[in-house]
Amino acid sequence: MRYLISILFFAAVYGAIVIIRDMNRFVVAPYEVKSDKIKQKYTFVMLSDLHNKSYGRQNEKLVKAIADCHPDSVITVGDMYTSKEGTGFDNALFLLRALSKQFPVYMANGNHEHKTSEYPQAFGGMYERYVKALQELGIKPLVNGHLILPKENIDLCGLQIDRSYFGHFRKQQMPENYLEGLVGKPAAGRFQILLAHNPLYFEEYARWGADLVLSGHVHGGIVRLPVLGGMVSPAVTLFPKYDGGRFRLGNSIMILGRGLGTHTLPVRMWNPGELVLVTLLPDTKRTQ
Predict the structure, then answer these.
(1) What is the DSSP letter of 188?
(2) How far apart are CA 158 and CA 144, in angstroms?
(3) Which residues are CB-contacts of 201 (< 8 A; sequence separation ≥ 6)?
(4) Which residues, other chains included, contact 73 with Cβ-Cβ below 8 Å and sequence gap of 6+?
């Protein structure tokens, strides 16, 4: 019994060390995507699920890491803060203010921004204050809107689906023309990047015509295990199919970031925060 207690004690200490370490560090995850639609090289950093966390004073560690990547832009795919009464977005704003001085910043909402926009009184006008602060930085969230990058032949589209699609335990079916009704049809001939916070609907995004989907939301599965991957999703499903990394369906690719912060369950284990670096390149073989 004494040996068992000792083993359990050291296992608990080890687990606590891993959790504390992973909750306070991040790694850079590089990806490369080629397409004959891309006209010239384009590099961007993708951020997801910061949840108002700060790495260093005013997020200086994160700002430096992003600057060291030398991206052409920064793209965020939602949940930069948490929709919890009494919380704020100061750390997210410090980060975005510093980044906007160096790079173009393009944004889409996650379910937390969406929730605070739907219930302004409950959250003390949090979303309205956030958007106003962003506008002063020259940043406008793409809420079911498009932005064209003509030199690279890229169409950025920020998708905001109804919050009912973020429910627990099961995937709610999405009507066939639902995405088209929100954002229209993808532009023919342009490389279509869809900023879609919830990766659960990758099949629907691919069917719509996205060349590249950028997602977050799942936090890498919170606790990651060898081979099995992430343990639990925000929808409270075990070992979710989409937990983090690169996925392909037909001609569509999804890059799913593991996020940078936590909320509700403040745990990351064998799962440090993730800064995603994506390089888009012309596919010269397909154009010859």
Answers:
(1) T
(2) 5
(3) 161, 165, 171, 174
(4) 44, 45, 103, 104, 105, 106
Is the pTM higher than 0.90? The answer reads yes
Q: Sign of dihedral through CA atoms 165, 50, 30, 146?
A: positive
**What would the two tokens of residue 285 be?**
């073989």
| Residue-wise pLDDT tens digits, 226-251 | 888 999 888 888 999 999 999 999 99
Q: How many CB atoms lie within 10 A of CB 155?
A: 21
The burial class, CB within 10 Å (0-12 / 13-18 / 19+), for 267 is middle
Sequence letter at residue 28: V
Q: Which two tokens stand for residue 77?
A: 């795919």
Determine how β-strand 273-282 pairs with β-strand 42-47. antiparallel
- The residue length of the chain stands at 288
157: enclosing H helix or E strand: strand 154-159
* Ordered DSSP codes for 207-260: HHT-SEEEE-SSGGGSBEETTTEE-B-TTS-BS-S-SSEEEEETTEEEEE---S
Q: Find where tokens 């392909």 sit.
A: 248
